[in-house]
Amino acid sequence: MLEGRGGTPADDAGSGQGVAHEAHTDDVDRIVAAWRRELPQLDVEPLHILSRITRLARRLDLLRGAAFAEHDLEGWEFDVLSALRRAGEPYELSPGRLVTDTLVTSGTMTNRVNRLVRRGLVTRHTDPHDRRGALVRLTGEGRRVADAAITDLVTREHALLDALPVAERTVLADLLRRLSTPLEG
């Protein structure tokens, strides 16, 4: 959408068109200001929200990577282990369900399960209800590692969110849910 805006974020906040800004500025404020200067006819307002989400996601990937590394895990390993752990006892799922839960292809999941089997974190066995199917089950060590990793991760994420009061966290979670729900197939 093209509009004749070239003002500052504070100008937009006062007009009801932008996001209310505190005295703090960040990299996105500088990026938006530069685009407004260079292309004043272009409405770059979405950058205020979506660029922050993108940049935050990158930083969260680094935070998560550090938390998982403490437990000798890659992010993908945690994804599989945590899907199994969340399934409840006996902590097993079909490879197809793991594909759905982790958003990867079946070939990728086969490779991942094989690697986790070699590490002793999961086992694979025949589904007793469908002899053609298989089930992947979390081992005791896999459960221990998954529990330790999620505990460490949540501790780090709590520290990050401590900057926001609980009421603002609730509002933010609701707004993000409204944005993400239509994108989920």
Which structural class best describes the helix and strand composition? mainly alpha
Could you tell me the number of beta strands? 3
Under CATH, the homologous superfamily of the domain at 72-185 reads Winged helix-like DNA-binding domain superfamily/Winged helix DNA-binding domain
**CATH topology annotation of the domain at 72-185:** Arc Repressor Mutant, subunit A
Task: Give the CATH level 1 class of the domain at 72-185.
Answer: Mainly Alpha
Please write the string of helix (H) and strand (E) elements: HHHHEHHEEHH
Summary, kept brief:
This protein is mainly alpha-helical. The chain has helices at residues 9-15, 27-38, 46-69, 75-86, 95-102, 106-118, 140-161, 166-180, and strands at residues 92-93, 122-127, 130-138. A three-stranded antiparallel β-sheet has the order 1-3-2.
Report on the architecture of this protein.
This protein has a domain at 72-185: Winged helix-like DNA-binding domain superfamily/Winged helix DNA-binding domain (Arc Repressor Mutant, subunit A). The chain is mostly helical. A hairpin with a 2-residue loop joins strand 2 (122-127) and strand 3 (130-138). Helices cover 61% and strands 9% of the residues. Mean pLDDT is 88; it is low at 1-20.
